[in-house]
Every structure is written in C-alpha cells, then in structure tokens.
Specification:
single chain; 4% strand; two-stranded antiparallel ribbon; 2 strands; mainly alpha
C-alpha cells in the first residue's frame, strides 16, 4: 500500500486524473502510516526497513483497514530460453532478476 495522503497530491488514489493507476485502493488515510511509508522508502538498512514495513502491515490489519481475503492474480509468461525465473505471488515478478540467464537452446 502506498502513501495515504489525504488530499491525494501524491496520486496514490485511483482516479480519472491518473488513469486509475493509483495503489491506494481502499483510500485509507492516516498521517502516522504516511510517516512510516516515507521512512520505509528512504531506509537503506534491510532490518530497519523490515521493521517499518511490519509495523505498517500491523496497522492495516489491527485497524481492520485491510482484510486479506482476495488476491488479484496476474498472468505472467516467460520465454522458454530464459532460465532462473522464479515467479511468486508474494513479490514482484522480477524479484530475482539477478538469477535470470538466457539458455543456449
């Protein structure tokens, strides 16, 4: 979930002005969450970033902002000459791009 800026100046809320591309589908607004989001996007220490993201997740779940019942599935295709691709529903498609190789076939 992206920043929850109340006035939507960051374009997070899906709307006609941003061609319905914002990620704040629930239109959740919380200044504390926004502060954590800003910290998470600038934190370079993986452990500290993980702690921030867990706190953000806990806020969403404990305040019943998000009830994780539905997964919007994506369709992904991979060329047969590409090896090392490990598609996962839990992360970005390119999460392990460093392991991708073109086979000689």
């Amino acid at each position: 979930m992206e920043s929850t800026n109340d006035d939507d100046s960051d374009g997070a809320n899906p709307q006609k002005a941003n061609k319905w591309t914002g990620d704040n589908f629930s239109r959740y607004c919380n200044p504390e969450y926004d502060k954590l989001w800003t910290q998470a996007t600038t934190e370079i220490d993986p452990k500290k970033r993980q702690e921030i993201l867990i706190k953000m997740n806990d806020m969403l779940i404990n305040n019943t902002i998000v009830i994780p019942l539905v997964h919007r599935a994506d369709v992904q295709g991979v060329n047969q000459q590409l090896t090392g691709v490990d598609l996962t529903p839990w992360d970005l498609t390119v999460w392990n791009i460093k392991d991708w190789k073109k086979s000689s076939n």
